[in-house]
């Protein structure tokens, strides 16, 4: 398992056609491979490093020993897994139900929050892949946001200039996904 301390990783479902869509955005509040702690030893998604970053790692065997020795560790990891599964489910609903501007606004504010900065070094092509959008749909959306002074767009970089206004443009899913990112799911919400 990997516990990022910086950077962004996109967990993506990949179809046989090669199309892909993000199921979860992983940063300093999440982990890569968390489902292995609840018994899933095959990856359900493809992990794509979106930015440079660092992570702590621990072999699953050592983590399992710690889980057996310390029930609190096991409980916290189960809550963590539940929160990430919730992110994946709600992210899928969001991608199906909300327009490009809402999804782009949600993703940008979430990414900036995970990175702890307003500058996101990412190509438009990579962002389009993660959101399941064509570049032809993403570019006009970014240009509208730029024209309104919410973002600045440069080659390989998007800067958020007005975070509060961008958050207002985001869909209703932002709050639910934020709960998953910051493990705000109460322990009573998690499956035993």
Structural account:
The chain is an alpha+beta fold. It has one domain: Arc Repressor Mutant, subunit A (Orthogonal Bundle). It contains seven helices and eight strands. It has a three-stranded antiparallel beta sheet. It has a three-stranded antiparallel beta sheet with strand order 6-8-7. α1 crosses α2, α3 crosses α6 and α4 packs across α5. The longest helix has 27 residues. The radius of gyration is 17 Å and the shape is elongated. The C terminus is likely disordered.
How would you summarize what this structure contains?
The protein is α+β, with helices and mostly antiparallel strands and 192 residues long. It has helices at residues 60-69, 71-97, 100-115, 124-131, 135-147, 163-169, 173-181; strands at 2-4, 9-14, 20-26, 46-49, 55-57, 119-120, 151-154, 157-160. Helix 3 packs parallel to helix 7 (173-181).
Q: Helices and strands in order, then pairings?
A:
Elements lengths: L1 E3 L4 E6 L5 E7 L19 E4 L5 E3 L2 H10 L1 H27 L2 H16 L3 E2 L3 H8 L3 H13 L3 E4 L2 E4 L2 H7 L3 H9 L11
Antiparallel strand pairs: 1-5, 2-3, 2-4, 6-8, 7-8
Output the keywords.
Arc Repressor Mutant, subunit A; 47% helix; 192 residues; alpha+beta; disordered C terminus; 3-stranded antiparallel sheet; 7 helices
């Amino acid at each position: 398992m990997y516990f990022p301390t910086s950077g962004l990783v996109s967990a993506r479902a990949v179809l046989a056609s090669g199309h892909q869509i993000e199921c979860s955005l992983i940063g300093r509040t999440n982990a890569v491979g968390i489902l292995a702690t609840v018994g899933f030893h095959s990856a359900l998604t493809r992990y794509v490093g979106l930015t440079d970053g660092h992570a702590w790692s621990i072999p699953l065997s050592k983590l399992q020993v710690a889980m057996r020795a310390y029930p609190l560790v096991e409980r916290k990891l189960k809550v963590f897994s539940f929160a990430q599964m919730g992110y994946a489910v709600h992210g899928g609903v969001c991608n199906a139900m909300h327009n490009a501007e809402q999804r782009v606004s949600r993703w940008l504010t979430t990414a900036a929050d995970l990175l702890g900065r307003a500058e996101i070094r990412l190509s438009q092509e990579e962002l389009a892949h993660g959101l399941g959008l064509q570049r032809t749909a993403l570019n006009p959306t970014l240009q509208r946001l730029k024209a309104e002074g919410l973002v600045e767009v440069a080659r390989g970089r998007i800067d958020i200039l007005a975070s509060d206004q961008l958050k207002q443009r985001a869909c209703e899913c932002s709050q639910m996904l934020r709960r998953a990112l910051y493990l705000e799911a109460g322990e009573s919400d998690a499956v035993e």
